[in-house]
UniProtKB/TrEMBL annotation:
Leader peptide range in chain numbering: none
Species whose genome carries this gene: Bifidobacterium aerophilum
InterPro entries: Cro/C1-type_HTH (IPR001387), Lambda_DNA-bd_dom_sf (IPR010982)
SUPFAM superfamilies for the chain: lambda repressor-like DNA-binding domains
Domain of life: Bacteria
Name of the protein in question: Helix-turn-helix domain-containing protein
Molecular function via GO: DNA binding
Residues in HTH cro/C1-type domain copies: 16-61
SMART domains: HTH_XRE
Length: 67
């Protein structure tokens, strides 16, 4: 599952909404979603913030990135 798919499935239609919820810039979210940057290189703290905002476990978040 792509990063964008996880965001949309969690109910965040816009990157800005997730950005405000987890404290990651809209540009960084864009970079991860478009493949400009690999989201698997993010810090554990950031991954925890994002997975919490998405309403999924950290394991599900990491596994989703690897699909």
């Amino acid at each position: 599952m792509s990063f964008e798919s996880m965001r949309v499935q969690a109910g965040y239609a816009k990157r800005k909404d997730l950005s405000e919820r987890c404290g990651v810039s809209v540009q960084r979210l864009h970079d991860w979603e478009t493949g400009f940057r690999d989201p698997r290189g993010i810090s554990l703290r950031t991954a925890h913030e994002i997975s919490s905002a998405l309403g999924i476990t950290l394991d599900d978040f990491w596994n989703g990135l690897n699909e």
